[in-house]
Amino acid sequence: MNASQCDERSGDVGLLFLRVSGGLFLLCVHGMPKLLDYTAQLQLIEDPFHLGAHLTLILAIFVEVLCPLLVVAGVLARLACLPILFVLLVALLLVHPQWTVAEGQFGWLLLILFATVFIAGPGRLALNTRLPGVLRHA
């Protein structure tokens, strides 16, 4: 294996680590609590677009459960990053505009992480590389 192949492999491993760790973090810390305790979360969810608590929570569950699973698997990863990035920006800029960078640091770090996956793509260690057609190029 030459140096170029080694660099490519380590880049793919890095993207895999980024996708899996970031996706599982978002899923476990934000998505699963909403999914598993739906009723309690209805009382807590912010509704910045006045869609109603139920619809807002359903959309949040989609973004924080389904999208991270797609990112972890590397299937439609770039597309799955878009709703995540949107929700993070809404949370940081509209829902919690009073937060300092220090108070919102985890949100900003998640924004950086998922923006990186969006820019770089899932890498070659992703399920989409094994799937035919449109999923390979997304």
TrEMBL record:
<keyword id="KW-1133">Transmembrane helix</keyword>
<keyword id="KW-1003">Cell membrane</keyword>
<feature type="transmembrane region" description="Helical">
    <location>
        <begin position="105"/>
        <end position="127"/>
    </location>
</feature>
<keyword id="KW-0812">Transmembrane</keyword>
<feature type="transmembrane region" description="Helical">
    <location>
        <begin position="52"/>
        <end position="72"/>
    </location>
</feature>
<comment type="similarity">
    <text>Belongs to the DoxX family.</text>
</comment>
<keyword id="KW-0472">Membrane</keyword>
<feature type="transmembrane region" description="Helical">
    <location>
        <begin position="12"/>
        <end position="32"/>
    </location>
</feature>
<dbReference type="InterPro" id="IPR032808">
    <property type="entry name" value="DoxX"/>
</dbReference>
<dbReference type="Pfam" id="PF07681">
    <property type="entry name" value="DoxX"/>
</dbReference>
<feature type="transmembrane region" description="Helical">
    <location>
        <begin position="79"/>
        <end position="99"/>
    </location>
</feature>
<dbReference type="InterPro" id="IPR051907">
    <property type="entry name" value="DoxX-like_oxidoreductase"/>
</dbReference>
<protein>
    <submittedName>
        <fullName>DoxX family protein</fullName>
    </submittedName>
</protein>
<dbReference type="GO" id="GO:0005886">
    <property type="term" value="C:plasma membrane"/>
</dbReference>
